Amino acid sequence: MICIITGDIVGSRRIKDSWLSNLKSALKLAAGESNRWEIFRGDSFQVGVEAEEAIKLAAYIKACIRVNKPADVRMGIGIGTIKNKRRKLSESSGDAFVHSGTAFDTLKQSKTNLAIKTDNPDFDEEMNVLIKLSLIAMDNWGEVAAEMVKLALENENRLQSELAAISGRTQSSVSEALKRAHYNEIMEVDKLYRKKLNQMILK
């Protein structure tokens, strides 16, 4: 099982290009050693990640883009298999790509910025409700909140005092920004997603 995330930048033609370098950095980190990511048509992208990491990395990509407010990002998460693994991600095929494209295509109609699709409709229904609830916070991240979420996800094992030292902010401002971003709640959604995913795989 693998995850393909398909996305695009919302309103990219109306905003500065500062989001592009952040997107590239986010996709490189998300793809890891596999380096399976592409940007195409100027503001659209695909990245292959481990299925368990899907929610966390989608949140990370969103934080990287929201730092450049009013920029935002739409993403369709597809979980499945890859049949033909080619050198270029866009030339590969399989259920993960189909599901990712289907999830992405539903975003405009459902007026949401993130959705997931697998072979399991019950899993999809449950997780998409949790994602919609998470988006109440994520879609409203300001620049500072997004910056702190980005930093926290890049340094998951560090204390808030260490994040404060890295960012040049006070510990209280870091704590307040993460609280405002509902960071802990989003990480709880990530934890539940991993649990449900493993249960689904084992069935």
From TrEMBL:
Domain of life: Bacteria
Name the record gives this protein: Uncharacterized protein
Pfam families membership: SatD
Organism expressing this protein natively: Pedobacter zeae
InterPro entries: SatD
